[in-house]
Amino acid sequence: MIKAIAHPNIALAKYWGKRNEELNLPAVGSVSITLDALKTETEIQFIENEYDIIEFNGKLPAEDEQKKLSKFIDKFRQISGIDKKVELITNNNFPTSAGLASSASGFAALSKASSKLFGLEFSDRELSVLARQGSGSAARSLFGGFVEWHKGTLEDGSDSFAEQIADKSSLPLSIIIAVTSKESKKISSRIGMHNSSLTSPFYKAFVDTSPNDILEIKNAILEKDFMKLADFSMKSTVKMHAVMMTSNPPLFYWNHKTYEIIELVQDLYNNGENVFFTIDAGPQVKIVTTEGNAPQILNELKQINQIDEIYVCNLGNGAEIIEETH
Ligand code: PMV
After folding, report:
1. pLDDT value, residue 183
2. What SS3 state is found at 158?
3. What is the atom index within ligand 1 of the atom nearest the CA of 10?
4. What are phi and psi of 4, to 5 degrees?
5. Is the whole-model pTM more than 0.85?
6. How far is the CA of 138 from the centre of ligand 1 (A)?
7. Is 25 in the pocket of ligand 1 (CB under 6 A)?
8. Is the distance from CB of 13 to CB of 235 less than 8 angstroms?
């Protein structure tokens, strides 16, 4: 039995849209931070059975979800030549499919555990290419701290991998996640980005301006320039949501609480505080600040009523094997 752990990541330079949908090849590169407190734990072992047995947060997942996971494990069966079924038990300590990157930590943990179980000696970079095929953003969760996922140009996707840009200690950050709704999102990122790429008049501008955002964000990280990081990260978030909102049908992931929190964070930022917001395909607001500053931001957040839940994280590590029994 192999047990692996992986953490969700949050993109600062956002990914939205694919150049190849089958292989999850992105239309743009992206830069992310890996979190510590939220986690997926995945246990996997061989079983003598005709099909894989999959348990997800203590329950049997829906049939399409089971098929997707079995199909993903097929890649490891094919590469290793070991045609055995598995029992897979996976648990998240946070809401699933609600814009908290559960698919990123999920496929990163599954890739890490599966490669070990099937005896494959992949580097994390190689594993990121496989994890990407489960969920694009999963490529980034293999690594800790600050991570870049390269768009790549090759047709087979072998150059669309992730790698660490800087260690978590190089610019220590805290991330406050304000959960404004625990409902699963109605439109998946897969469908949302497909529609956006075909219909949003802003999509091309998002794609064309992404390389500069990535460059500025990477420079800000390496120069430890928080305010520059804040500026370009917020720009990338708002551009991605402008693309979402101008898609047909329009995608409004925000709710009124999301907007209230954006306003609060913007006021703090305009007053020179080390703080910025970032939002993914859901209504939750992730507030990024320098490590140690979280209590002050949490105090400010008290002004806003009825936030469903708040998580406070620092930067975390990449995917790891945490248990192995024979
Ligand atoms: O990889 P997916 O399908 O979970 O898509 C992630 C898309 C965003 O979270 C909205 C942006 C990003 O870069 O993580």
Report:
1. 82
2. coil
3. 14
4. -125, 155
5. yes
6. 9
7. no
8. no
